[in-house]
Design a protein that fits this description.
Rossmann fold, 433 residues, Glutamine Phosphoribosylpyrophosphate, subunit 1, domain 1, 2 domains, binds iron/sulfur cluster, alpha+beta, globular
């Protein structure tokens, strides 16, 4: 986990997909739809690995899923795919997944906490690595010791799909931090990071994998090769902004949760000349929730430039792009008091620029509302993140308000988050415990 400096958010997601069919079929259209549905989880690069008679074919491209599928025909019964958002290792074609070695392909979403240590030990034994990713550590451990090795040695968060011989294996880390779910299509099965991918492929959702669960899919169907635990600690940010709104994770609708978070914020009294707007895209549903609850008018005064997302291809670009990213409908907000709802706030840089931009466009008072609790510390599963980059680590709410230039600032509380999501979520970066 790192910080996405461009969006001022935690950066973790990648998307994984696995398909097993009873017989070979032309699957490019379905697989395209599945990976496209996961595109929000990674836009830097993408790839697929599939069985083509006795061969494994790997195709990888930088950029969006569209680039990968241009002119592609795939006839297979077994495939895995990945969309990448780099956390370990730079964004380049070498680090693009699925990874492939000794007839095994693997795709991973998550971050390992002991990846460096394991890699060092493996290298001492003469094992060579061809990428800079922690995902390759999982692959090498699997080659050495199979599933048991992954489970016993790897620490951190992982949703993984592995293609080996005629089998598809899927697993979720022992804490259940990253989601993995299982679905059915006519003649086979799909595993994916999110249920929206299963639906996009015309399949039907069966269930989420439990924490630590490992399943195998082959010609005999689905078998559980390691039983999981119902005690799950899904990362709260999956609900706050990582996952797509039409996905369900662990039985909970992501879109519904975002709306409810906004409703919690909306329990306050403002005169009815105030307008509510969301910071696109993931602030939109919380803003609507706020407007329902408060009976204030929702106004889409902040719009997002659809094309700016492509700058993710340059993840190291530190330039503040708020100016390029958002545009303001000036005539709608001029001389108005605004309630601006955002999904979260990490360094506060995006909100500061946005508030400046809104004020310059003529807004009166700006009441900034955040649909997540205040982030107090880095993610325990993180490697490239420092607490000093997190504004809530060293400033109290009033100081943050001053820093970002809002007239008032409110967050939801961790208790509120737990009241709607239940206890099966990780909240460590909010509680600093
Ligand atoms: S500490 Fe927990 S909730 Fe926070 S980012 Fe990490 S996994 Fe997610």
């Amino acid at each position: 986990m790192t910080i996405d400096e461009f969006n001022d958010k935690f950066k973790e997601e990648c998307g994984i997909l696995g398909v097993f069919l009873g017989k070979k079929e032309n699957v490019e259209t379905q697989v395209y739809s599945g990976l496209l549905a996961l595109q929000h989880r990674g836009q830097e690069s993408c790839g697929i690995s599939y069985r083509d008679n006795n061969e494994i074919k790997n195709i990888k491209k930088m950029g969006l899923v569209d680039n990968l599928f241009e002119g592609l025909k795939i006839n297979t019964n077994l495939l895995i795919g990945h969309v990448r958002y780099s956390t370990w290792g730079e964004s380049n074609i070498k680090n693009t997944q699925p990874l492939f070695s000794n007839n095994i392909s693997l795709a991973h979403n998550g971050t390992l906490t002991n990846g460096d240590h394991i890699k060092e030990n493996l290298m001492k034994k003469g094992i060579k690595f061809s990428t800079d990713t922690d995902s390759e550590v999982i692959l090498k451990v699997f080659e050495e010791e199979g599933i048991k090795g992954i489970y016993n040695r790897i620490r951190g968060s992982y949703g993984v799909v592995i293609m080996k011989d005629d089998e598809l294996i899927a697993m979720r880390d022992p804490l259940g931090i990253r989601p993995v779910c299982l679905g059915k299509i006519e003649d086979g099965y799909i595993v994916a990071s999110e249920s929206c991918a299963i639906e996009a492929m015309g399949g039907s959702f069966i269930r989420d994998l439990m924490a630590g669960e490992v399943i195998k899919i082959d010609e005999n169907g689905v078998s559980v090769i390691r039983r999981g635990s119902k005690s799950i600690n899904t990362c709260a940010f999956e609900y706050i902004y990582f996952a797509r709104e039409d996905s369900k994770i662990d039985g909970i609708s992501v879109g519904e949760i975002r709306t409810q978070l906004g409703k919690i914020l909306g329990k306050e009294d403002f005169s009815n000349d105030h307008m509510v707007m969301g910071v696109p895209d993931t602030g939109t549903l919380p803003a609507l929730g706020y407007a329902y609850e408060s009976n204030l008018k929702y106004e889409p005064g902040i719009l997002r430039n659809k094309y700016v997302g492509r700058t993710f291809i340059c993840p190291n670009n530190r330039k503040n792009k708020v100016n390029d990213k958002f545009f303001i409908l000036k005539d709608r907000i001029r001389e108005k008091d605004l309630i601006v709802v955002d999904d979260s706030l990490v360094r506060g840089t995006t909100s500061k620029e946005l508030i400046k931009k809104l004020k310059k466009a003529g807004a009166n008072r700006i009441h900034y509302r955040v649909a997540s609790p205040i982030i107090r510390c880095k993610c325990d599963l993180g490697i490239n993140m420092k607490n000093e980059n997190i504004i809530g680590h060293f400033k109290q709410i009033e100081e943050i308000r001053e820093e970002i230039g809002a007239d008032t600032l409110k967050y939801i509380s961790t208790e509120d988050l737990i009241s709607i999501l239940g206890k099966n979520i990780c909240t460590l970066c909010f509680t600093n415990k």
